[in-house]
Amino acid sequence: MLLVLSITIVHGQKLYSTRTGQMKFNASGGVEKIAAVNNQVDSKMIDKTGQIVFSVLIKGFKFDNQLMEDHFNENYLESTKYPKADFKGYISNISQVNFTTDGKYNITAEGTLTIHGVSQKITVQGIMIISHGTPSINGSFKIKIKEYGITGLYIGDKIANEAEIALSVSY
Amino acid sequence: MKKKVINPYILLVVVQLLFHFTSRAQNVDLFKLQDEEDKKEKAQKTDIVTAIFKTTRLVNGQSIENLGEGLLDLKISHRFGPVNEGAYNFFGLDQATMRIGLDYGITDRLMVGIGRSSFNKEFDGFAKYRLLRQSTGKIEMPLSLSYAVTGIWQSLKDPTTTTINIHYTDHFYFAHQLIIARKFNDYFSLQLVPTLVHYNIVPVYTNPNDFYSMGIGFRARISKRVNLTGEYYYQFEKLVGYHNSLSLGFDIETGGHVFQLHFTNSTGINEKSFITQTDGQWGKGDILFGFNIARVFTVVKPRTANHVNW
Q1: If you average pLDDT over residues B100-128, what whole number do you get?
Q2: Chain pair A-B, CB pairs under 8 angstroms
Q3: Looking at residue A72, what DSSP letter applies?
Q4: Are the CB atoms for A47 and A14 separated by under 8 Å?
């Protein structure tokens, strides 16, 4: 009986992953629209432990205005030095989620967000939907731009102090 | 009755096996997995170097940069008179020549442009194509290489006294340039520009029609938005009375514009004019203050899969 128990533990974890998650951000300061979308968010999640990672290429954020995109990459995010941003953490109430039946759950994720080479501990609220056995996550949160070492004259002026980030990922 | 006792050693082995299985199941660490994947991806990706120079012209001449697809660049270039004109002419500020130009990016590799200079009333048109792009990663390319061809038409009226028949094609000049550039790091970029300027008609019978020169240009970053720039064209054969063009200046970047301020000994702004017809000499104080303003407009929006909607 003890041996049977160990086998179920081995096969108990499921790794969910996707490379086509969507992340949008908006940092408009009032006059000009400053927003971009990235449709190649890389994400992995383990159901039993709630361990979750998101990884996104900074150059993958597409703006309507090419010059704005160039400045975003060269002057603000310095994407040649810091090509990716990522989140590594755990969904703290993962035990409340039943992955085998369709349902909608409020989840809380805690972990480390690293942007521009600077890491900050964050807690984010989101919603996980299980549909036909496939989980998907939606969530949004705000970050203070300067907390990630991102500097520039226009932050607080044309560029908002806080950027709103929206995430939509299907595994 | 015989007592059935579980052999303690067998129990120990079973317990150890149990721990082995459970610890293996918990070994899938997403954090490590992500880091490994990132490393593999980095090795597979080719990163094309961007912003070797801040705009498509260095001071007077072409830079390695091309305009992105669907972008329109309005270029206004202004040169005052030489500083040694003295106080009466307000050290050259009373005099001016200028060029107004419009550049357009047809694709990310091909751009075209037209312009008109007030000096000698010349119209110019050019095309610039990116042959090789500097990159790191999967494809290691140490240099960027571009080809630029310029056609110039001088619309200045001919002097009324001439000894030969002047045909309309006699007012055309052409320039062929190969631009070789490298971005060494975020603080320094260098380019070499071997150039051929062709005159359909030359002043004196003994002049050649083709003038070869070598241009050299650099950009050095001195702050987040300010760069020091320099440009020099060495002519292997010069027309009598003319000198090599040397320019030094600053590029200042703001939200949508690039401002270029510089000192040069060239009055002309197109390839034929500034490379082969510079009559100023730095040593004699024939230094002209000038500036270029470039404003980029998006004509064709980039092909993004999702239009950004909030």
Answers
A1: 95
A2: 98
A3: I
A4: yes
Is B12 contained in some domain? Answer: no
Cα–Cα dist B248/B231, whole Å: 7
Measured between beta carbons, the chain B residues lying within 8 angstroms of A63 are 308
Query: Would you call B307 and A84 a contact, using CB atoms and an 8 Å cutoff?
Result: no
**Residue A4: pLDDT band by 50, 70, 90 thresholds?**
very low
In chain B, residues with a C-beta closer than 8 Å to the C-beta of A35 are: 308, 310
**Tokens of residue B67, six digits:** 């305009």
The CATH number assigned to the domain holding A132 equals: 2.40.128.110
Range of the domain at A108: 16-170
- Count CB-CB contacts under 10 A for residue B145: 16
Angstrom distance (rounded) from CA B53 to CA B220: 9
Phi first, then psi, for residue B8 (nearest 5°) are -60, -30
Task: Look at residue B3 and tell me if it is in a domain.
Answer: no
| Domain count within chain B | 1
Report how far residue B18's alpha carbon sits from residue B25's, in angstroms, rounded to the nearest whole number: 11
CA distance B64 to A55: 33
The verdict on a CB contact (< 8 Å) between B301 and A10 is no
Query: Is the residue at A118 inside a domain?
Result: yes
Residue A11 lies in a domain: no
What DSSP letter does each residue of chain A carry, written as one string?
-HHHHHHHHHTT--EEEEEEEEEEEEEE-SSS--EEEEEEEEEEEETTT-EEEEEEEGGG-B-SSHHHHHHIIIIIS-TTT--EEEEEEEETTGGG--TTS-EEEEEEEEEEEEETTEEEEEEEEEEEEEETTEEEEEEEEEEEGGGGT---TTBTTTEEEEEEEEEEEE-
Q: What global pTM score does this model have?
A: 0.76
Span A120-147, pLDDT tens digits: 999 999 999 999 989 999 999 999 999 9
